[in-house]
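tool=predict chain=A
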Amino acid sequence: MLSRRQLANAIRALSMDGVQQANSGHPGAPMGLADVAQVLWQDFLCHNPRNPQWQNRDRFVLSNGHASMLLYSLLHLSGYALTIDDLKQFRQLHSKTPGHPEVHVTPGVETTTGPLGQGLANAVGMALAERTLAATFNRPSFPVVDHYTYAFVGDGCLMEGISHEVCSLAGTLGLGKLIVFWDNNGISIDGDLKDWFSENVPARFHAYHWHVVAEVDGHDPAAVHAAILQAQQVTDRPSLICCKTEIAFGAPNKANTAQAHGAPLGLDEIKLVREKLAWSHAPFVVPQAVYEAWDATQKGCVLEQQWQAMFEQYCVAYPALAQALLRRMTGTLPEGWADAMEAYKEATQAKSEKIATRKASQNCLDVLGPLLPELLGGSADLTPSNLTDWSGSTVISVQHPAGNYIHYGVREFGMSAIMNGVALHGGFIPYGGTFLTFVDYARNAVRMAALMKQRVIFVYTHDSIGLGEDGPTHQPVEHAAMLRLTPGLSVWRPCDAVETVVAWQAAIVCQGPTCLLFSRQNLPTMSRTPTQVQAIAQGAYVLFDAHSAPDLILIATGSEVSLAMAAAQRLQQQGCAVRVVSMPCAEVFSQQPLAYQQAVLPPTVTKRVAIEAGAADYWYKFVGAHGKVVGLDRFGESAPSDVLFNALGFTAEHIVDVASSL
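tool=predict ok
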């Protein structure tokens, strides 16, 4: 019978060989964590390599994503559809083994990690999703949602500020099925980290209200096994298992050195590792006996079959709940929701109310909420300002785990990355709010949502200098442009209540993340025909047109659309044939057929003015070399919004002057 060390050494060999062949990567952490991983994956992890999407599987997150060869080795050895040839293609173009784990690229990878700390945040989101679904759907004798979330984190993850945000919240919420393993190897890229990371980590997590298992020898399988058992018995708090490991365990000259962190060991050192570990096999050669000992396919199939048998009984006992759970876990929207939203959109147009789009958004949520129980809302301590709650919102807490709204506290980055984890888990469409200017705090999590193509809805209110007196610290300028430059991200900035409805409709069906930018100030509802109302969904449409072919096109978004309309009336009185195009979502418009784009923005009309109370540069792609932009090239000031708009040139008069200069 093979020893645990022999099984762990298979991970070490594959990891160091993969990094060496790529001549790039991080061998140290995989070699140091191999013993911990062997215990977790072979003794505890509930998964089925034949069905990586089995909904009741345990989730495993490698937050220190640079240790990706650890995860790839585990997946390969356990029987996932990841071959030895795939491992040989580590870090190569179009391979299934990219430099950092990427969801949807490698079977068995739960989330894309690499930016340190965000995997830990995703794990918090997954554990939160699991507990909320369990509280909603489980019934006596039917724990149909019942799994753990495990995460490996490195010193770097715990140095990142996001780790404080999410671990504080996880402790407050008492996420007892979240178990985190800290790879305490004391080494980072710059060397021995005692001079820059000296805090008492166990005490820190005790303060977060976590259960802490301190001083675990990460190379003692019995100690690791006992620590996991202890963590599983603590159900009212998340657990941190502090694993003291040796980076590049088994490397005679490079273990416990920064050299092993982010560079290949070198052929000479690898030869010495093989001798020290008594691993005599050639690179990428794993003995059949080792494969057989690691193979988790049969065990995984049995685990899933046992769950499936219980779920079939659950379907008989609770058919409506079973149907709802399956619908939500597959991401399918319920019948009738679209028709209800279409009727609401028509009613909103007919009502023609002057209202802030943030309030219009809340009104939408009052309609969407009962239709879509999978909506999981929240705000970073700005609920009364973002208006992200609705009449049916129930706050999630330890006492009330089956709610649908999260008070994230002042944790914009943590909120955003947790929402990514919730979406990755499945069963929810998460949305969360803050002020647009504070997307700076959360920027990388928004980028990760786009990279992972997750249906996450970021609600950003107070979308311009129109927020007024709070001043330039809170007034966004460059933010909308920055978001629009992110691949795969849809950015909606509606001009009124009707466009707000369409923005929410689009966000719900989008197979990727959406940013909804809403105003603080009241905005009038534009007059539209039914055809124009339907055209909003195409991202841009003709809101006002001359009776003849246009000589000039005004393009605007958000609160500036009403200014464009006022300017158009004046220009028309001066004999100018003017068209106004409302462009609530440039990304969606750019995806429309070229014929539609050119019908809205005829190439022959080169006199164009774009108007947005934000950075100007983005808009030159639409106005061209002969057009102009009424935008901002400076920060705002503290003043009432109408005063600011006048002072900074956002008036109908100024727009007319700019248009007349073309």
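The radius of gyration is 28 Å. The mean pLDDT is 98.
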